[in-house]
Design goal:
Distance between the termini of chain B: 53 Å
Number of strands of chain A: 13
Number of helices of chain B: 15
Order of helices and strands of chain A: EEEHEEHEEHHHHHEHEEHHEEHHHHHEH
Number of domains of chain B: 2
CATH superfamily of the largest domain in chain A: Metalloenzyme, LuxS/M16 peptidase-like
Strand content of chain A: 15-25%
Strand content of chain B: 15-25%
Largest sheet of chain A: 6 strands, mixed
CATH topology of the largest domain in chain A: Cytochrome Bc1 Complex, Chain A, domain 1
Number of domains of chain A: 2
Structural class of chain B: alpha+beta
Shape of chain A: globular
Helix content of chain B: 40-55%
Oligomer: heterodimer
Distance between the termini of chain A: 46 Å
Shape of chain B: globular
CATH class of the largest domain in chain A: Alpha Beta
Largest interface: A-B, 86 and 84 residues
Number of helices of chain A: 16
CATH class of the largest domain in chain B: Alpha Beta
Order of helices and strands of chain B: EEEHHEEHHHHHEHEEHHEEHHHHHE
């Protein structure tokens, strides 16, 4: 084989130059953040309304009202809307979330004015035709049956229910029954109370021309729009037990989740904790991935992360592992957290993570569309626009001592919910075999 | 429009460079001309397992990921039935690190029993996560076996069964590497905040000394012309009855590929596709229905898949679907529908040309397809398709006697 040259010099990443978006204000006070810089004549616009689960009056209404918004407006059927949008090479989607409902429009600038009547129509007077509403309910009752067969879906929804309780907007699970209880009138009421008159923020990225600003003004800027308060709800009711098991017979893999409430993004501990999370499970070279995938082969992937909502934030660890190695995998997860509490991270590992994260940040502000995602995260997190620079500073300056302190404060096993969906009894039995002799480990347990 | 420079090293490695001075990042994409179709029928899933092993260390770099992450980069790879593609994205200042890493593993992989042992298990967990522990997870195992009788497309990339992956040996790994992972069987595409001269210099410096292998000539069994419809019914513990139909279609390189792709778009792209509007929204026979093409390098498949709506008569729903499909053969589509499909492909291409990685991947892909310049001819190819072309390919592809039908049904009656 060829003798290759000596390894090249590596350049440390010291800075990430984030160009702040240009802020415009529409006539009614709605802010528009514009990020210019595409080679082609294209634009992607996101209009983010306070209209998610937190603003609904009954479970499932906000998601349905979002999805069905494009199914009709005065003088326009759903078919006509879809055909016009697609005829101009555009895409128009509305999706509901926990806090926000986001209208996303992307396409070629030269056709924006053709889409104005449609966007205006669905934003102010979406018609929610009976037939499409009934269709939505029926199809989602069917889809939920498929999802309920999947251990990862059961674990993700089970986790939020355990954290917030079944009555909480962040905690409830959709069921076939809940879908059946949805009514057209509830969608209309929700839409008129939120999308039609609440104050969104808008992010536009691509080639920002006058066409883009005129479009935003005409579609969202001409009527009064006010801030909206969330629907009042009771306090979160976390599950009483710390360890939860849900059996699903016949699962060759089990879904494991660990979670606990965590600080909001604007808390002083957040940025150093973000680095700690990266070390634990936030990238491919993380402790959890190196141990549980690359050393033990228990899983195809394991990650940790934080979910930040307007009124709550949680930290989680998430993986699917062979059911026969469920118990040893759980043991390794706790062992990795313990290691972070007991031993300072080495300078070598921390340097690697610093460089990795700085490279990631550089990527997150590369080009208008990636920058738009970053801006959205900043706005939803109620953070200042120079947040990217603060994050860069923290990544460069955080110390092993600080990280160990944070691990002791935030990564205590007794504070963590532990949830297993799959086949825990079987896991307990063959887990012992897996630990003794690894060769049988990959047999399909039947 | 992606402007690029092209060069081939003496050892056969093909190089493509696209400069994007607005980006602080660089994407390095290495495509190897090997996929699951090159596997031995008794050792399926090997190309994909091998992809995992490419991260297990090479002669001069014990830990690929660690070095790349230290340079501020990240990477991934994927395997299809046709090809295996690796990519690294990192700050442009550290471009050379990616060259070092990619050249080192192309030069000589570290054939380690330990890495093989771990990755066999990881791939088995991937197999379980995506193909066993999911409702309908094995549907492509079944559909491929139905639609292909001799061509290696009859197995999916993950492999026919877990045991094939479990039996892979270090000798298999070595042979595969020296047969397929040679510079003359690879394409290197670089895009981002880089200079062409700098990239070509680095390519010569790092890859220039790597010895070529024996050229690999594919001689895969051609699928015989299908003359009879085939049908299979599977009953399993799934919640909803599903229908899959697959017809043989032309290769990705064939001139009719574009018309066939637009045919599938007219039937189901977006919310305004005919199948969605007529059979899901209007007649409520299906809860979900889509049509797409596989875009395979050898004979591909035109696929329609759908979920039957609750409580419908399945044969009635299928008859209505057949009627929609046969109408594509009988009647020309309107000029507006074709224009819609064209505008959509223009927007799709423009949005796809934004990221540095997207551009590097496209260049390498089109070079493998035959010529990198195709990357800039794609929109024109779609623009040239006429309503008559679409009707003609519908007539050729959607023949009832070439249809492969798979019913994937719920074992117990679905309760309301």
């Amino acid at each position: 084989m060829a003798q290759l040259p000596a390894s090249p010099l590596m350049h440390p990443i010291t800075d990430a130059h984030f160009v702040h978006p240009e802020k415009h204000v529409l006539s009614n006070g709605v802010p528009l953040y514009a990020i210019d810089g595409a080679a082609d004549d294209i634009v992607k616009m996101e209009v983010v309304f306070p209209a998610g689960r937190r603003y609904e009056t009954a479970p499932g209404v906000s998601a349905a009202a979002a999805k069905l918004m494009t199914e009709g407006a005065p003088g326009l059927t759903g078919t006509a809307i879809a055909e016009t949008v697609e005829r101009y090479g555009a895409s128009l989607k509305v999706r509901g979330g926990f806090d926000y409902t986001t209208l996303q429009l992307q396409g070629l600038n030269r056709f924006l004015d053709r889409l104005l009547p449609i966007v205006h129509g669905i934003v102010y007077e979406a018609s929610y035709p009976e037939k499409e509403c009934a269709n939505y309910v029926r199809n989602n009752r069917q889809k939920i049956k498929i999802r309920e067969q999947k251990v990862d879906y059961l674990a993700d929804t089970g986790l939020r229910e355990a954290l917030y309780g079944p009555q909480h907007p962040y905690g409830y699970k959709m069921t076939g029954e809940l879908f059946s209880s949805l009514t057209r009138q509830a969608f209309v009421d929700h839409h008129r109370r939120t999308i039609a008159q609440s104050r969104p923020f808008i992010i536009a990225a691509g080639r920002i021309t006058d066409q883009v600003q005129d479009f935003a003004e005409a579609a969202f800027g001409r009527s009064a729009r006010e801030a909206l308060s969330p629907t009042p709800h009771g306090p979160a009711q976390p599950s009483a037990g710390r360890v939860l098991h849900q059996t699903k017979t016949g699962s060759v893999q089990s879904a494991l989740r660990f979670a606990k409430p965590i600080m909001a993004k604007n808390h002083e501990d957040y940025r150093p904790f973000f680095v700690l999370n990266t070390i634990l499970g936030g990238y491919f070279g993380s402790r959890l991935m190196s141990n549980i995938r690359e050393d033990k082969g228990y899983t195809y992937g394991i990650y940790s992360g934080m979910t930040h909502l307007d009124d709550a934030s949680y930290f989680y660890i998430s993986t699917e592992v062979g059911s026969h190695v469920c118990q040893p995998a759980i043991g390794e997860v706790y062992a990795e957290m313990q290691r972070l509490r007991q031993e300072p991270v080495s300078d070598e590992e921390l340097d690697l993570v610093r460089n990795y994260l700085l490279g990631t940040i550089l990527g997150s502000i590369d080009g208008p569309f990636r920058s738009a995602d970053t801006v959205r995260g900043i706005l939803q997190g109620h953070l200042p626009m120079d947040y990217v620079q603060h994050l860069v500073d923290t990544i460069r300056s955080v110390t092993p001592v600080q990280l160990q302190e944070l691990a002791n404060r935030y990564l205590q096993p007794d504070d963590l919910l532990e949830l297993v969906v799959g086949w825990p009894e079987e896991a307990a039995v063959s887990g012992a075999n897996g630990a003794n002799g690894e060769n049988g480990a990959n047999g399909l347990s039947a | 429009m992606i402007s690029y420079h092209q060069h081939t090293l003496a050892n056969g490695l093909r190089i493509l460079v696209h400069e994007d001075p607005s980006s602080p990042m660089a994407a390095v994409n290495v495509l190897y001309d090997v996929g699951a179709r090159d596997e031995d029928p008794g050792r399926t899933g090997f190309a994909h397992l091998f992809e995992h092993l490419m991260f297990g260390g090479s002669a001069g770099v014990p830990e690929f990921d660690t070095v790349l992450q230290r340079a501020g980069g990240n990477n991934n790879a994927y395997t299809t039935n046709d090809l295996t593609n690796y990519y690294d994205v990192l700050p442009a200042a550290n471009l050379e690190t990616a060259f070092w890493l990619e050249a080192d593993r192309m030069n000589l992989l570290d054939f380690s029993e330990r890495s093989l042992d771990v990755q066999r298990k990881v791939v088995c967990e991937e197999f379980k996560e995506h193909y066993i522990n999911q409702p309908y997870g094995d549907v492509w195992h079944k559909l491929r076996a139905l639609a292909y009788t001799v061509h290696p497309y009859r197995w999916p990339t993950i492999g026919l069964e877990l045991s094939h992956v479990e039996q892979a040996s270090l000798d298999d790994v070595r042979n595969f590497f020296f047969r397929f992972y040679r510079p003359n069987n690879a394409i290197l595409a670089v895009s981002g905040g880089v200079k062409t001269g700098q990239v070509l210099e680095l390519a010569q410096k790092w890859f220039g000394g790597i010895e070529p292998g024996v050229p690999n000539h594919r001689n895969l069994a051609a699928e015989p012309l299908q003359r009879q419809p085939r049908q299979q019914t599977v009953e399993a513990d799934v919640p909803v009855d599903m229908l899959y139909r697959a017809w043989p279609m032309c290769t990705r390189q064939h001139a009719d590929y574009y018309a066939t792709d637009l045919l599938s778009d007219l039937l189901s792209a977006g919310e305004s596709g005919r199948l969605h509007r007529r059979l899901v929204m209007e007649n409520e026979l299906f809860s979900d229905l889509e049509a797409y093409v596989t875009g395979s390098f050898d004979q591909g498949l035109f696929v329609v898949e759908g979920k039957f709506a609750e409580g419908v008569d399945r044969s009635e729903a299928e008859a209505a679907l057949d009627e929609e499909l046969q109408r594509m053969r009988r009647e020309p589509v309107s000029e507006e529908e074709v224009e819609k499909a064209r505008n959509q492909s223009e927007a799709y291409e423009a949005f796809g040309n934004v990221s540095v990685l997207g551009k590097a991947m496209k260049l390498a892909y089109y070079e493998l397809l035959g010529d990198a310049s195709l990357v800039n001819e794609e929109i024109e190819q779609y623009r040239r398709v006429t309503a008559a072309d679409i009707q003609r390919v519908a007539g050729e592809v959607l023949q009832p006697e070439r249809c492969n039908t798979l019913h994937y049904l719920a074992k117990q009656p679905v309760l309301q």
